[in-house]
Protein: Amidohydrolase family protein
Organism: Sphingosinicella rhizophila
Amino acid sequence: MAAAAPLPPEAGANPDVSRIVANPAPLRRSGEGAGPFRKMVIRGAILIDGTGAPPRGPVDIVVENDRIAEILVAGTPGLPLKDGRAPRDFDYELDATGMYVLPGFIDMHAHGSSIDKAPDLSYSYKLWLAHGVTAVRGVQLSEWDVSSVEKARSARNEIVAPRIFDYQRLGAAWGQGTVRTPERARAWVRWAAKNGIDGIKFSLSPTEVPEVVKAALEEAEKLGLGTTAHLSQIGVARMNARQAGDLGLGTVTHFYGHMESLLKSGAIQDVSTDYNFYDEQYRFGEVADIWDEIHEPGTPEWKEYLAHQKENGIVFDPTMTIYAASRDLMKARNADWHDKYTMPQLWNYFQSNRENHGSYFFDWTTRHEVQWRNFYKRFMALMNDYKNMGGRVVTGTDSGFIYKSYGFGFPEEMELLQEAGFNPHEVIQAATLNGALTLYEPKGIVDPPIGTVRVGKLADLVIVKENPLQNFKTLYGTGTPRLNESTQRQERVGGVSYTVKDGIVYDAKKLLAEVADMVVAEKRRLGMPEQGLPRP
């Protein structure tokens, strides 16, 4: 396992960035994915198109190269499908009779598997694809020199990977030092735009003061770069989510900044007098305590805040999955997938450790979990109320930290949105169309090429046997137990069957098997038992 690189002096303000460069993914080998084809037909499916429309089917979906060319009525529900349906001049036919087709999922808060967590980026890529994630917003995926190359390789389908949108931290990679002034902020944004960076990730480091952020946001809007912010405790007293929205921020990621915008007394949370931001048990142990310092749901102040943010056009990316362990550590630590699919380096990173970010369970107590559960009630209500008034909510995971393995966090985020009050159709819309709109609108594209299943769109699709609207648990790679009434035995059902990206069909079960083999190989290399993982 590679040693962790030392954190720079102000790294505590960027707490969700690995700081370890990732190794590029190997080239896509023969047999890794089928296609794209001159003409492919996906037969007999039930379509959930991502717009919020109800399911419809059976349909035949015709894909030509990387685009959806036709969506054809294939028969009548309850009656047998007719054989020999047009078109017949296909090069590839996929029988999806009775299966469900959805748009590819979009993870709006992603970091790639760095060398302290896995041998290379293919580990995270394959787990994402195996869970139907066909596009990720890397915030950052990796250091810029790696991210930019991986983005291009994925676009050419030279590697097995989702499409990559490259967001970088303000001041990253340009080689001209830290950005400390508005003039330097504008100069960096111009450099970023010229070098293919899609957007900026703010974190309110000590140098990201309001006037610097304001300048960067103004320049980003001019040049078509998206923006998102983790409004960390380091700077939130001077710039909460309301203030950031007023300056033109595109997305608030996580919960930071929302609650500070709703404090009943002042602008600063009342943390303990011995609080230390760099001590992560203090940071994450006390951040949830803010839940009873804010205006309550339904109050005029609560409603006014949400209306104000809707007027700003700001997007909420709650990433509830990444902090879910804080409210139930045992559940997260013992999730079904860890033994088979969590890389030993990643598992080691998760363990309580004062150096690794997010490994903050030094002495996690019942009180901590109760406070986090109370916090989640308010946080979920905020997301649901925003959605109900027409505000946009998207799905992001931030996996690779806090017992969240890549890919598996996505269906959990969907489950958490449903817990928050979203109906299943609204969850799918958040996971598909809403993410696509958020990624492409800064570029001036109001009708994005991904995010819905429509004629003319890119063929980014998820194909599943189980109805996800009935149970999002069926989207986990490990599936979910269900009693077989014929045998009276429990069996695993679900998991994604196929993920299609740019018209290339990936067998999701095969991708998971390849990841399982990667995990076993690493355990052997490290002299560990092949089955299971060490637990305290």
User: Anything to note?
Assistant: The CA atoms of residues 214 and 247 lie 6 Å apart. The first helix runs from residue 122 to 130. Residues 1-18 have pLDDT under 50 and may be disordered. The radius of gyration is 23 Å.
